[in-house]
Amino acid sequence: MPLAELGYQASARLIGGSAMKVLSIQSHVAYGHVGNASAVFPMQRMGVDVMPIHTVQFSNHTGYGAWRGRVFDGPAIEEVVQGVEERGALGDCDAVLSGYMGSPDIGTAILDAVAKVRAANPGALYCCDPVIGDTDSGVYVRPGIAELMRERALPAADIVTPNQFELNLLSGLPTRTLAEAKAAASAIQAFGPRVVLVTSLTTDATPGDAIDMMAAEGGHFWRVRTPRLDLKAVSGAGDAVAALFLVHYLRSGSAATALGMGAASIHGLLKATAEAGSMELLTVEAQDEFVNPTKTFPIEAV
Question: What is the pLDDT of residue 248?
């Protein structure tokens, strides 16, 4: 299914005459683009009013091997959320987006924030990027985070956006084949989320020169396949694609549309990054990809 057939405009800016609002709670770095430093600007470029709350404040991401800064605690997050609530702003939130949590008490604070937003606006969605680890490094979060994700965050979420490693871990199932990946996504949905986006997927059906993304909603599954790029080790793509998918889903109400638009934009961002040989995402330089992707890819029902 080509994106043009969906009649969807990626650059749409307003809902109901006012800017969409998202509360984004995740890590932040001063140098580079991971966590909120990767997710906030793409949403803003798409016309979203973002309220960012940082779970950590680091100089740079930890992949460099050295960094400075600190991890905040749950009460610090709760205090900022309380201040936002006192401004009467939680009722205007269309969604909460969460990423790297840092510690279980931060996870609790995030879920409390989700409950407050839903109390103020029952129609608000919660998109949880269940940051736990990846295939290359394994689990890289603190003890207790994976359990919190499975036992508390997934049941609270409307949308979850795991990578393949996180899909395997949270579902307890293998994903060597497309059928297995679909079963794993369905297992995640059984916890509570109605939408699952697998942000990177390689099965025995994936060609060696490609990478897949898959979305599940309402018993249906869709796949988008994009060319594999010659990238250096870059971080933050998962944070960006979760944000892109959330905004497109809020605007379209369709996981298929959100998958197609998110995949097109993230491919454009990664292609620009690869061509420049950059170790950091070129989030600012490639910003037009968020509203007008250079190339789109077919959405396949699978």
Answer: 98
* Cα–Cα distance measured from residue 1 to residue 33, given in angstroms and rounded to the nearest whole number: 32
Helices 237-252, 36-45: crossing angle, 10 deg rounding: 30
| Per-residue DSSP letter, 63 | G
| pLDDT, position 292 | 97
Burial of 208 (0-12, 13-18, 19+ CB in 10 A): exposed
Sign of CA dihedral 47, 87, 29, 248: negative
Number of Cβ within a 10 Å radius of residue 120: 15
Give pLDDT, residue 232: 77
What is the number of other CB atoms lying within 10 angstroms of the CB of residue 277?
9
What pLDDT is stored for residue 13 in this prediction? Answer: 46
For residue 244, the 8-state DSSP code is H
| Tokens standing for residue 162 | 């795991």
The phi-psi region of residue 115 (left if phi > 0; otherwise alpha if psi is between -120 and 50; otherwise beta) is: alpha
Mean pLDDT of 104-121: 97
Q: Please report, as a single letter, which amino acid is at residue 302.
A: V
- Beta-ladder partners of 52: 24
pLDDT at 21 over 70: yes
Q: Which residues pair with 82 in a beta bridge?
A: none
* Whether 23 contacts 36, CB under 8 Å: no
pLDDT number for residue 2: 54
Q: Are 256 and 249 in contact (CB under 8 A)?
A: no
For position 32, what pLDDT does the model report? 96
CB 216 within 8 A of CB 195: yes
Helix (H, G, I), strand (E, B) or coil at 155: helix
Residue closest to 230 by CA, chosen among 164, 294, 275: 275
Beta bridge partners of 128: 98, 160
Q: What is the pTM of this model?
A: 0.94
| Alpha-helical runs (H) found in 178-291 | 178-191, 237-252, 255-276
